[in-house]
Amino acid sequence: MTRLFVGLDKQQNRVVIRCLTDEWAKRWGVRKSFFRSAEVINHLNHPNVIKLIETGYEGRVPFMVIEFIESRTLRDLILYRDPLLTDNVLSLMRQLAEALLYIHNNGFLHLDVKPENILIRNDGHLVLIDFDLAIPTKRWRKRIRQLPGTPSYIAPETLTTRMVNEKSDVYSFGVTCYEMLTYHKPFEGDKIEQVRAAQIDPAIPPTKLRSHNPAIPVAVENLILKCLAKNPADRYPSMSLVIRDLEALI
User: Fold this and answer.
1) According to the model, what pLDDT value does residue 4 have?
2) Of the residues 122, 147, 149, 208, which has the fewest C-beta atoms closer than 10 A?
3) pLDDT confidence of 193, banded at 50, 70, 90?
4) 190-194 contacts at long range (C-beta below 8 A, 24 or more positions apart)
5) Domain limits of the chain?
6) Is 130 a catalytic residue?
7) Are 122 and 181 in contact (CB under 8 A)?
8) What are phi and psi for residue 230, nearest 5 degrees?
């Protein structure tokens, strides 16, 4: 759908140029969504959120220019069990929580929090990217037309009712942190249908983190499991409360 290029700005600093492929650029709805995501990024200014430089057209192809970050994705760190992750996991969790709190406080939901959309610099600094699915909070109480994000990271109530709010991002945050701590997802299966069924079945709890790694403190496990509560009423209502409990652990 999109292509990425590394270029130089007028000051000879590296930047990333993201553009739609020719086929997708022909679709009005896709172009609208592409520029809407750029508008969301442009509204935000936080050290843990990617920065937008400019947008425009090259011929008939839309593009956006974003900051270049020398980094790896969180998915890469999880895949290789990199010491950069294991040595800084609570700090990375805190940075991700701070980014989401800032996004929520500025009137948006991210709705696609997952390791592939998180960059980690070699100094342990985290940056959240990819706002293609972000929506303004004024739509919280509306049903979304399509399921947002990647199935394993979608909150159970969104899978069943297509309703989203802050707790949707809290759940995705919980799944992502679960992977950071255990290198597993809370619900796993050979087929996506199995995973989805387990996610929405109230009788099937997520696998305890300490069953994967007994060294994880009980308090950390409890925090993540509260983020993953299937009943939204049992989940953290906001990222501010997640941060409150995280601070007690760091």
Assistant:
1) 93
2) 122
3) confident
4) 192/151
5) 2-67, 72-247
6) no
7) no
8) -70, -35
In the chain, the amino acid numbered 42 is: N
- What percent of the chain is predicted at pLDDT more than 90? 78
Neighbours of 158 (CB within 10 A): 24
The token pair that represents 149 in the structure block: 């994000």
Which distant-in-sequence residues (6+ apart) come within 8 Å of 158 by Cβ? 144, 147, 148, 164, 168
CATH number for the domain whose boundaries are 2-67: 3.30.200.20
Residue 6, Cα to own-chain centre: how many angstroms? 23
Q: Which CATH superfamily is domain 72-247 in?
A: Transferase(Phosphotransferase) domain 1 (1.10.510.10)
- Residue 107: the pLDDT is 95
Identify the active-site residue in 76, 112, 201, 234.
112
User: How do residues 93-144 score in pLDDT, each as one tens digit?
Assistant: 999 999 999 999 999 999 999 999 999 999 999 999 999 999 998 755 556 6
Q: At what angle do helices 218-227 and 239-247 cross, to 10 degrees?
A: 180
- Give how far the C-alpha of residue 200 lies from the chain's centroid of Cα atoms, to the nearest Å: 20
Which own/partner contact pairs does 29-33 have at CB distance under 8 Å and 24+ positions apart?
30/1, 31/62, 33/132
pLDDT at 10 exceeding the cut of 90: no
Nearest C-alpha neighbor of 40 from the set 124, 106, 117, 121: 106
Structure tokens at 35: 């520029």
